[in-house]
Amino acid sequence: MRPSQAIKFVFMVGIVSCLITICFWSTCATRPLEVVSEDRAEYDSQGNFILTKYHKRGTNSINGEGVESMQVIHPDEYHELECNINSETTIKCRREGNEIYMPFSFIKNYFEVFGEVQETDGYERFEFHHSNSIVHPPRPTYTPGSVFMAFDYYNVENRDRVKCVTASEGVPITTQWNKDGYHYPIQVAQYGLSHHAKHIVNGDPDQIVLEDGEEDNLSDWVMPDKKSQVKTDRDADKKTRVVEFLTSDSLHTKGITIVAADKNNKCIIMDVKFVTNGSVTVVVELTSGETMNIHYVFTNNYISFDGKSNIYYGMSERRTHWMRLARDLKFDLMKGLLLKVRLDKIKESYGLTRVKEIKFHGHGWLDNLTLSYSVHVEQFYDAANWLVQHQDQRGGWPIMVQRRVVTGILELSPGWYSAMGQGQAMSVLVRAYLDSKDDKYLQVAINALNLFEVDSSQGGVRAKFLGQFDWYEEYPTTPSSFVLNGFIYSLLGLYDLKETASGAGKERAERLYNSGMKSLKAMIGMYDSGCGTFYDLRHITVGIEPNRARWDYHTTHINQLLQLMIIDDDEIFKTTVQRWLGYLKGKKSRHN
Prior knowledge:
Elements: H1 3-30, E1 35-43, E2 49-57, E3 67-73, E4 79-85, E5 89-96, E6 99-101, H2 104-111, E7 114-120, E8 123-129, E9 162-165, E10 172-174, H3 185-202, E11 207-211, E12 221-222, E13 229-235, E14 240-246, E15 256-262, E16 267-274, E17 279-286, E18 291-297, E19 303-305, E20 310-314, E21 323-328, H4 329-337, H5 343-349, E22 352-361, E23 363-372, H6 376-390, E24 403-406, E25 410-412, H7 419-436, H8 439-447, E26 462-465, E27 469-472, H9 484-498, H10 503-523, H11 538-541, H12 551-567, H13 571-583
């Protein structure tokens, strides 16, 4: 073949090859291709970890093999990763180099920890906490008349399970185990102790006396009509001058009114007596500018709200004798609104800005009408007086609801007593006695010792661990549960009484206290879980799963031992508290 012919042949072969290649390319391009991706962990030439993402696209029409490309993910870039949790479930995580990042929503529930994003000066920071409760260091000294533990921080009436503070007796009604509401002696005592503590810490409040009957000038009173009247007179029972008022009983009338117009003092105190079906109405102004009427009326219904502008509190049927009303109007307003309004809405639009006026309906007498910044002393004595009036012949305060500690195993029928209730009642009564010097409070406290000397199986509150260690039961079930915090509260009540009483009452309280402290020192280690505390010993006495204490109960255990250390500096309390404080920060006891 001549050279020129050879050149032409090569040229023609090249053209044909190009045409064939183009044909095949076109055929492949028109076919839909499946893309399969795969992540592979590899290392680069320097030994650094990299993640390589391989993409396999379709099949090659010539040899049927996949066409593979490679994308290298930089080790510092986040990327999604599936996390297998105990071979039971999977969650979406993120990976950055050698670090794995798990969602905090998962970590929070899995490890029972806490955290939230907070913003300060325009910067965000995540605050992580192993626990969500606070330890309050005790005061350097403790006496039966001093602040009880850290109860100045307690707001019993603000708890969700408190339906209201009754206008009839001035103490909380709880819905904890019965939605209709009932008096729970522990809650009543804690209410009293908290307000006693708040008064000591805050001192006497600012007050404005609106009317005390000492002056004949009654020009501040506004009459609704010509028939209504007010006048001053001397009361034989109180032996002081009081104001007598007379107008219609009906709340549909305006009532006899005195203007308050005070923005600072949002509590009200008065001594009042009715001989008709009268009432007291306090008109308050809200942050929205609207007004709300809080009525104190004669009914056995604790509380109601018409959904508009009227809240009603029942004063029972306490006519014909003097009664003292001491009300924190902020809480009365909030508890009434909560019957039909969401809490967030209340905070937004229903805050109490000022007391506008007080109205009286019916025929009655009034003394010491006062606006006050707080009513802690009155609230404390409301609790103490309730305890005096409601102690039964056995020396206790029966709890009239069924309590199921463990359904079908640890249950109590209505009428049971609680060592915690007995002990905290004694702490209230001792303080009332020390403040007032009235012997009735001390005698009722001494009577409360009776049930500590009666076994749980016989309707008392005493149990014995292994037949030798006395334990005063918060829930006196059979078999026993040995609740820790309730037992320690009962010991503090016994301590308060033994330090205050004399004679036989002191001897009984001291014997019971010493026996209980011996048991606590012997058994306290049984409540240590190695990373927290146990609420009770049901896992030992009944043989069921342990009842771990929530963090707020764990810190209660710590606060109680810190208080006992002021009274008794036994080394067992010191070493136990140090361990339990460490658990709040995530520390654990050593393993084998």
